[in-house]
């Protein structure tokens, strides 16, 4: 919703100011198809050359969620910590082996099934169950598991950042492709130097549209999407950090109530529930 509103404000103000100053939109509309072919087509081709197929696929996969609101809300984090609390409470009362079946088959687990938002998120459940499985095995201490968690979170972040960097590079290249389109327009104009001034003026105007479009697409369309992708990536990483903090606190001997408080403190202030809110939610669950 906010992405659409942002684009409307951006493009509306730019073209509105142009029209108010007496600009002729027909010049831009007339040049738009060919200039867009040169700029967007050239940028797309360079984008495919510059990135591996897995990066291209990652970029395409992230476009859909960009136009939706963030799924990482206060309610989601409270559900995550309530789920972790119940897991740790079960371990505390019945021992580590009591969660073995839940860990081995999380999709059919009654425990994880009580929390549909995070319990059906493949990435979260896989992260949680992998390290619970290591805790059950008892072969690794807290410091070794923390190192593994940090490595996995770093890998997740770098993998997601590859798509963000690809979009940033695309945004940086678009003004140059706009210049390429403009130069071609100037070359075309110089080849028609015998035409009347009115015709030459129109041709030069069409050529300059290429520069305008390249800069507009870069800083008004593509670069903001890259920045939004980066923010959403950070939110996804934060969820893993909450899980890491809670599980490590439990391994170091803290009670489940204290362990989830450790996790609560990791959250950004905009999504962090108060102590009372989290306690009430956990008791209700």
Automatic annotation (TrEMBL):
What is a single cellular component term in the Gene Ontology annotation? Answer: plasma membrane
The cross-references to InterPro entries, in alphabetical order and at most eight, read:
Flag_MotA_CS (IPR000540), Flagellar_motor_stator_MotA (IPR022522), MotA-like (IPR047055), MotA_ExbB_proton_chnl (IPR002898), MotA_N (IPR046786)
Membrane-spanning ranges: 5-21, 27-49, 166-187, 199-222
Listed under GO biological process in this entry are: bacterial-type flagellum-dependent swarming motility; chemotaxis; proton transmembrane transport
The highest taxon in the source lineage is: Bacteria
- Which keywords appear in this protein's UniProt record, sorted alphabetically? Cell inner membrane, Cell membrane, Cell projection, Chemotaxis, Cilium, Flagellar rotation, Flagellum, Hydrogen ion transport, Ion transport, Membrane, Transmembrane, Transmembrane helix, Transport
Q: Where is the MotA/TolQ/ExbB proton channel domain?
A: 127-239
Motility protein A N-terminal domain sequence ranges: 5-95
Q: Where in or outside the cell?
A: Cell inner membrane
- Principal location: membrane
Membrane topology reported for the UniProt record: Multi-pass membrane protein
Under the heading Pfam families, the entry gives:
MotA_ExbB, MotA_N
Q: Which family does it belong to?
A: Belongs to the MotA family.
Q: Please state what the protein is called.
A: Flagellar motor stator protein MotA
Q: Which organism is it from?
A: Aquabacterium olei
Q: What is the lineage of its organism?
A: Bacteria, Pseudomonadati, Pseudomonadota, Betaproteobacteria, Burkholderiales
Query: What gene name does this entry carry?
Result: motA
């Amino acid at each position: 919703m906010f992405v659409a509103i942002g684009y409307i404000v951006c493009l509306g103000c730019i073209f509105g100011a142009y029209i108010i100053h007496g600009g002729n939109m027909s010049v831009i509309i007339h040049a738009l198809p060919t200039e867009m072919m040169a700029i967007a087509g050239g940028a797309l081709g360079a984008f495919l050359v510059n990135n591996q197929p897995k990066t291209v696929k990652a970029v395409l996969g992230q476009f859909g969620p960009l136009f939706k609101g963030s799924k990482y809300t206060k309610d989601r984090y409270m559900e995550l910590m309530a789920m972790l609390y119940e897991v740790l409470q079960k371990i505390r009362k019945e021992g580590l082996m009591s969660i073995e079946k839940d860990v081995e088959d999380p999709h059919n687990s009654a425990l994880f099934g009580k929390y549909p938002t995070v319990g059906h998120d493949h990435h979260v459940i896989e992260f949680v169950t992998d390290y619970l499985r290591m805790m059950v095995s008892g072969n690794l201490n807290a410091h070794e598991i923390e190192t593994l968690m940090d490595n996995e979170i770093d890998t997740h972040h770098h993998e997601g950042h590859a798509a963000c960097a690809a979009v940033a590079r695309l945004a940086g290249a678009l003004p140059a492709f706009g210049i390429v389109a403009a130069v071609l327009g100037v070359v075309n104009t110089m080849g028609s130097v015998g035409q009347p001034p009115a015709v030459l003026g129109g041709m030069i105007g069409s050529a300059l549209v290429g520069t305008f479009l390249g800069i507009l697409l870069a800083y008004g369309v593509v670069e903001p999407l890259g920045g939004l992708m980066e923010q959403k990536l950070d939110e996804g990483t934060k969820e893993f950090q909450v899980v890491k903090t809670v599980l490590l606190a439990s391994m170091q001997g803290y009670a489940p109530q204290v362990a989830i408080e450790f996790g609560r403190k990791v959250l950004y202030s905009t999504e962090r529930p108060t102590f009372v809110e989290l306690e009430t939610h956990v008791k209700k669950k």
